[in-house]
Amino acid sequence: EPEVTQTPSHQVTQMGQEVILRCVPISNHLYFYWYRQILGQKVEFLVSFYNNEISEKSEIFDDQFSVERPDGSNFTLKIRSTKLEDSAMYFCASRKQGGRSPLHFGNGTRLTVT
Amino acid sequence: AQKITQTQPGMFVQEKEAVTLDCTYDTSDPSYGLFWYKQPSSGEMIFLIYQGSYDQQNATEGRYSLNFQKARKSANLVISASQLGDSAMYFCAMRGDSGVGSYQLTFGKGTKLSVIP
C-alpha cells in the first residue's frame, strides 16, 4: 500500500540553524499538510497546501516557517532559524480529494534543537 | 472553535477482551468528520476509522467500530478482541467544515492503551 515517506527520521540541529524536513506524499493525493507533536503533547496543525499554495496555516506557522513543493513529488517544510521550542516530531500528511478521505501520515521526523 | 476531549489518559485491557476508548467533541460546524488514529511507540500515526456527522450508520473497520452518538457529541472507539499489538496511544480527531482545501484536524490528548497478556 502506498505511504507517505519522510526524511530524515531524526534531525539534530543547533539553535539558529536552518533545517529542511522532507516528505514524499502519496502520488495521487492532492492535499498536503504538516503537523507537529511536542513530546507528550497534542498533535497540532501547522499548514495545509493545495494547488501549489498554502490554503490554511495556524498561529504556530509564523515567518520562520515555509513550505514548498519544488517538483511533482517532494513537499518540504523549512524552519529558517530554529529555536529550542521547535523541538518536536513533525508529521507530513496527504489525502485524496473528497471530504471523507482521511489524512495519511508519514512516520515523522523527530527534530531536536540544541 | 473545535475541541476534542479524551478523558482517559490510560487504559488497560486483557488480551481478547473488548475495550472502549472515550471521545467527546464540541463544534459549531453543522458538518464535520471524526477520526481515530493509532500511534505505536515507534511514533507513526496510523488511520483507523472515520465517521461523518451525517452518516446514518456507525462506522466499522475490522475489529474497530465507532460508537457515534451525535446528540451526546461522543464518538467512542471500540476495539474488539484486543491483541498485544493494539498497545499504543490512540487519538481522536475532528475535521470541521471550513472550506476547500482546508483540513485542519483538531486532536485530543490521546489515550494510552495497554493490552495485558
Your description of this structure?
- The complex is a heterodimer of chains A (114) and B (117).
- Chain A has 114 residues and is mostly beta strands.
- Helices cover 0% and strands 50% of the residues of chain A.
- Chain A is built from no helices and eleven strands.
- Chain A has strands spanning 5-7, 10-13, 19-24, 31-37, 43-50, 53-57, 65-68, 75-79, 88-95, 104-105, 109-113.
- The termini of chain A are far apart.
- In chain B, 34% of the residues are buried.
- Chain B has no helices and twelve strands.
- Chain B is an all-beta fold and 117 residues long.
- In chain B, the strands form three sheets. In chain B, strands 2, 5, 6, 10, 11 and 12 form a six-stranded mixed β-sheet that branches.
Entry summary:
The complex is a heterodimer of chains A (114) and B (117). Chain A has strands at residues 5-7, 10-13, 19-24, 31-37, 43-50, 53-57, 65-68, 75-79, 88-95, 104-105, 109-113.
Helix/strand layout:
The complex is a heterodimer of chains A (114) and B (117).
Chain A: E1 5-7, E2 10-13, E3 19-24, E4 31-37, E5 43-50, E6 53-57, E7 65-68, E8 75-79, E9 88-95, E10 104-105, E11 109-113
Parallel strand pairs in A: 2-11
Antiparallel strand pairs in A: 1-3, 3-8, 4-5, 4-9, 5-6, 7-8, 9-10, 9-11
Chain B: E1 3-5, E2 10-14, E3 19-21, E4 24-26, E5 33-39, E6 46-52, E7 60-61, E8 64-69, E9 74-79, E10 88-95, E11 105-107, E12 111-116
Parallel strand pairs in B: 2-12
Antiparallel strand pairs in B: 1-4, 3-9, 5-6, 5-10, 7-8, 8-9, 10-11, 10-12
- Percent of residues in helices of chain B comes to under 10%
State which percent range the strand residues of chain B make up.
over 45%
Could you state the oligomeric state of the chains shown? heterodimer
Low-confidence stretches of chain A: none
Structural class of chain B: mainly beta
Taken from the alpha-carbon principal axes, the silhouette of chain B is: globular
Portion in beta strands of chain A: over 45%
- Rg of chain A computed from alpha carbons, rounded to a whole number of angstroms: 13 Å
Largest sheet of chain B: 6 strands, mixed
Q: How many β-strand runs of chain A?
A: 11
Helix and strand succession of chain A? EEEEEEEEEEE
Rg of chain B, please? 14 Å
Tally of strands of chain B: 12
For the termini of chain B, the CA-CA separation is 41 Å
User: If you average the pLDDT of chain B, what whole number results?
Assistant: 92
Estimated helix fraction of chain A: under 10%
- Quickly count the helices of chain B: 0
